[in-house]
Fold Protein SCAI.
Amino acid sequence: MASMDDHERKIVVEFCQLLEQSKQLFNGLRDLPQCGQKIWQGYFGKTFDVYTKLWKFQQQHRQVLDTKYGLKRWQIGEIASKIGQLYYHYYLRTSDTNNLNEAYSFYSAIRGRQYYSRVSQEDRSDLMVKKLRYYARFIVVCLLLRRVGAIRELLAELDKQIVDYTSTYEPDDQLEWSLVLEEIKTFVKADSIVNVLHADQSNVILSHRLTPLTTPPVEKSTMMNLSLQEIILIGNASEQVKFSEMTIDMFRMMQTLEREKNRDEVNHVSDPPSRASFEKSYSITSNKTLAYPMMANHDVNSSRRENPHKYILYKPTITQIMMFLATGFKELPANGVLLMYVSADGCFQTSKHVNDLGYDCGGVMASSKREMELTNKKGVHVKEIHCLYPGDLYPFTRKPLFVIIDSDNSFAFQYIPRYFGHPFVVLMSPQELPDKLHEQLQHNGSLFTLFLHSPLTAFCLICNILTVKMHLWERANSYVDRFITEASRLFTSKVKPDVSYIQFFGDDFLRLLLLRYVFCHVVLRHHRAFVGEQYLPRCQPPLPLASFLDEISLKKYVRELAKHLDVLSHFENFE
């Protein structure tokens, strides 16, 4: 520092202090409790504050930092990457998709300004690993924002970077990075199980988040007074494709339970913006601060929150499941609903006698098969401890509870009693699939979840339609929309007002799930390949069959949809 004047020395010292403070705060994020919203919000706010100062400071004093401190471009990129991670993790904790767009803005800036372009010249393998991790994180954000063109380009770049990294350093984690790349490619392929094509054969980018156009209509009554506030998404399907601790089923449900922020932007931005557009971005220029949420003014219990709060759990232990259930239960405001979604392998009991429906019918796995096998080797005939049983949910029916079980043992959850009289619904997937579909979907996600996520995609899949022209897709969607509208009308007139369904029906997300369940049930019930009760979904309380699920008007729209797509032969007589 001898060659610096006092002003320059002060700038460098302050930058070093801000940099060290930001690193300490960022590292502290991993120690924050995953649940309990009020606990971690203040810490996130403080971290955002420091990174705001750091980002502005390095922009305002770039010349001094370049010449006197020796600031390198990869160091600027690392700061931007940390800010992107902050926004992404804040999205995971709040479900506010604005934060996804902010993460994308910073990750795009890193790529557009080539902050990591000279990392290879540093001859440091740890910097190459930082670069590879940046690419993996950027791809996750692009997946959630449906930026397909960007994903394609990033995959090609990541592939090249992995080759450069492994050939230069011959690292111990060479296989690990090859597996990461393969995971991403497999995940992207599974996500596009049915492709919708423009006239020029290019893929249409579809969003499956809730929009005003896809919100089912309803004539609300005073009984429809509940709103979805807390969500727990659990993924433990051992053979499903996954990426970044997120199975394809979890990925689909995350989007299904969020509102679309800007539909027009999502539909046309498939490529990263140019450098010129970065200069216009308020998050990147030196004239404005980071656009982080004003967390001190954010009411976590506000019923006006745009998206319900979510906990996303990949292969959690039974202890973790119970902890998050208890936390979500505790944080429910008045008239709030807790939704629990489970996509997991079945856990079956060997006992032939059923004395306790809460535990003797098995449940779903809450650990890996390996852990269960080790437990079972003891040879003692006791209940499997690594299993989520229906009886485990009994205490949480003290408040409105909406449960979705997607498993090959889902029917074990159909006997949960309403001891406390609060609204309670369970939607259960079919326990079996036709052999051909089972083979096709074994790794690519569940059919039931696909129906809840994108009903038309699921319909096309069971009719062996893997590509659809855009004009056919739009017309087909109109038949699905008519079905949903008619089902909504029938729901309010045919389902008894004292049943839980009506109380849940006022919430847009829950109404959407219920009506898509009805579509799934009607479609599968009339499909020739789905013969037998084990091939159909179930719900508790049961919906009336003769006066609702078997309504002629609903069957009519399914028939018209099948006729439009020229797949009537897949269905039995709709009379």
